Amino acid sequence: MSRAGRLLELLEALRRRRRPVAGAALAEELGVSLRTLYRDIAALQAQGADIEGAAGLGYVLKPGFTLPPLMLTVEEVEALTLGALWVGARADAALARAAEGALAKLAAVMPADRAELVAAPSSLVAPSLAQSGDAGRLPAIRAAIRGERKLDLAYVDVNGAKTRRVVWPMAISYFEAALILVAWCETRRAFRHFRLDRIEVVEATPERYPRRRRALLAEWKAEVGRRRPPP
After folding, report:
1. How far apart are alpha carbons 201 and 196 in whole angstroms?
2. Residue 208 forms beta bridges with which residues?
3. pLDDT digits over 154-207, tens only?
4. Residues in the chain with pLDDT values less than 70
5. Does the first or last residue of the chain, that is N or C, have fewer Cβ atoms within 10 Å of its Cβ?
6. Minimal CA–CA distance to 3: which of 29, 26, 37, 52?
7. DSSP structure class, residue 119
């Protein structure tokens, strides 16, 4: 492996860890000697990587250091391109424009061979079966999710019954035939899933819900996991 490739792998190994990791463990993972590891860490520090630690104490990469896009591997470029194409084909207009802009920025700072993977991707995304009529609600719902604010919904269930709900929005799930809002429902006092095409009215409120979204998502995932039958 070239020295540049080795340095990239070392950075990635450090980025995967939030706590200091011993030099010996890093050297074993990368298949290099401890002396080579120390030299590589010194080289990265000289290039601006904020790596803290010392021999015998362990090393940690401080938050905020990002790798230049030109260092992305072929598979990483293809993965990001596929993700952006999926957003462009499945999400609302605002996110589609954002995905297109992100790809353009990515291609602008890549070597020619990587930029070609963006211009002529190896993977394509088929059109979605989900209805596009509910796309106009997505920016407001996403803003409420980011701000951890309650939503007031006028909802029509599968039987045609109309209800009014105050919910704590947590995430939007993109299924092949529908978009689903994952939320805690104050009326049912439980996690509920709302099809966006059945939401007649959605109004954002200034009130924040009392739990952190990350904690709610963890509880929801655990509950969904308990419902699944064992393999």
Report:
1. 10
2. 149
3. 999 989 999 999 999 999 998 888 899 999 999 999 999 999 999 999 999 999
4. 1-2, 64-71, 129-135, 229-231
5. C
6. 37
7. H
